Amino acid sequence: MNEAAKFRYRSGNEFNCGSLTIRSPYGAVGHGACYHSQSPETYFAHTPGLTVVIPRSPVQAKGLLLSCVRSKDPCLFFEPKILYRIAEEDVPTEDYEIPLGKAEVMQEGTDITIVSYGMQLRQVRMAEVRAKELGISVEIIDLRTLLPLDIDTVIKSIKKTGKCIVTHEATKTCGYGAEISSQIQERAFDYLEAPVRRVAGYDTPFPLVFEPVYMPDNRKIFEAIKETVNY
């Protein structure tokens, strides 16, 4: 944060920290309690010059990781721990990259936008299936890179749907959803038909036996969808 992230800037672009990629597990794993289930991404997304990446799947992980190791800036690559255990996906053997700083619209929708990243998108997809049964069309955006942030993709979606939910595992206060909500308010306020809703972890140390209560799961997201659409 103090040296690598500033190296290219301080040298006037004469030197860089290319290929410096730090891999780190993060997030809930089902039984990790307060030390092993934390989501510290926002601490690092506050650091100019650093790239912060969180993949949602093995295919995404390979493409984003290859982009990280070839980047001129240092990258922090957060790997959802639960992904190590439940991921089942055929990953292409050939070389490919997924651009850093570019969000992906995973699913087109017209009634509400849900913005998320990492394994939380698994919960979003389950909530979307339930919403579809009620005739609610959900647009899903995977940020993939938190820093730099592709806010343009988010704003374009908000201008279409007029409603938004941001969801992540990390605690709500000063979580990454706060930044997304603020930028939406600044850039798309006139298009909003309801307040931006955040579905996140509670502002407590991550619990063990109460993990199911703490987690912002698909049931909480589904309830937020209904409340926001009917605002």
Overview of the structural elements:
The protein has 231 residues and is of the alpha/beta class. The protein has two domains: 4-86, 3-Layer(aba) Sandwich (Rossmann fold), CATH 3.40.50; 104-229, Rossmann fold (3-Layer(aba) Sandwich). It is built from ten helices and nine strands. It has helices at 7-10, 33-36, 41-44, 58-69, 81-86, 120-133, 151-161, 176-188, 211-214, 218-229, and strands at 21-26, 51-53, 75-80, 104-107, 112-116, 138-142, 145-147, 164-171, 197-201. The model has no long low-confidence stretch (mean pLDDT 95).
What's this, in brief?
By secondary structure, the protein is α/β, with parallel strands linked by helices. It has ten helices and nine strands.
**Approximate helicity band:** 25-40%
CATH topology of the largest domain: Rossmann fold
Fraction in beta strands: 15-25%
Poorly predicted tracts of residues: none
How many alpha or pi helices? 10
Gap between N and C termini: 41 Å
Protein traits:
231 residues, alpha/beta, Rossmann fold, 4-stranded mixed β-sheet, 10 helices, globular
Topology:
Elements: H1 7-10, E1 21-26, H2 33-36, H3 41-44, E2 51-53, H4 58-69, E3 75-80, H5 81-86, E4 104-107, E5 112-116, H6 120-133, E6 138-142, E7 145-147, H7 151-161, E8 164-171, H8 176-188, E9 197-201, H9 211-214, H10 218-229
Parallel strand pairs: 1-3, 2-3, 5-6, 5-8, 8-9
Antiparallel strand pairs: 2-7, 4-6
Helix pairs in contact: 6-10, 7-8
